[in-house]
Design goal:
single chain, alpha+beta, 5-stranded antiparallel β-sheet, 3 helices, 5 strands, about 25% helix, about 20% strand, globular
């Protein structure tokens, strides 16, 4: 990995309310279109994200790990089943820095360890 790759923790797009009856009905009929099926049921538990930003990719997210309030990784992408929430956004590191005043750096080692731990127990495989 490029030494300029950076890793950050963000709390953007966390603490979603549980889906209402309309959302559940839409998921029932259109859920097959969803890019992150493995994230379903975890949105309301998301407390923070760790996001990887490679230096050579326009500063757009490359990998992501979503954690609950206890610091347990509950979603990660991209993977065989999930494209990834932030990986699907057209946001750059500069956008994150502008929108999240509490953005915190994460070490590469911590990110890699969490990535490996998540996929060691997940019913999924990384897509990298």
């Amino acid at each position: 990995m490029d030494p300029q790759t950076r890793y950050y923790e963000t709390r953007l797009e966390t603490r979603h309310p549980p889906p209402d009856s309309r959302e559940r009905l839409l998921n029932l009929f259109l859920g097959w279109l969803e890019a992150n099926k493995g994230y379903r049921g975890n949105w309301e538990r998301l407390d923070h994200w760790w996001v990887e930003f490679p230096a050579d990719d326009n500063g757009e997210p490359w990998r992501e790990i979503g954690f609950d309030a206890e610091g347990v990784a509950i979603v990660a992408g991209p993977s065989r089943r999930n494209y990834g929430f932030w990986c699907d956004m057209e946001m750059t590191l500069a956008d994150f820095q502008q929108r999240d005043e509490h953005l915190v750096a994460v070490s590469r080692q911590d990110f890699e360890d969490a990535w490996v731990r998540f996929f060691a127990t997940a019913d999924d495989e990384p897509d990298d």
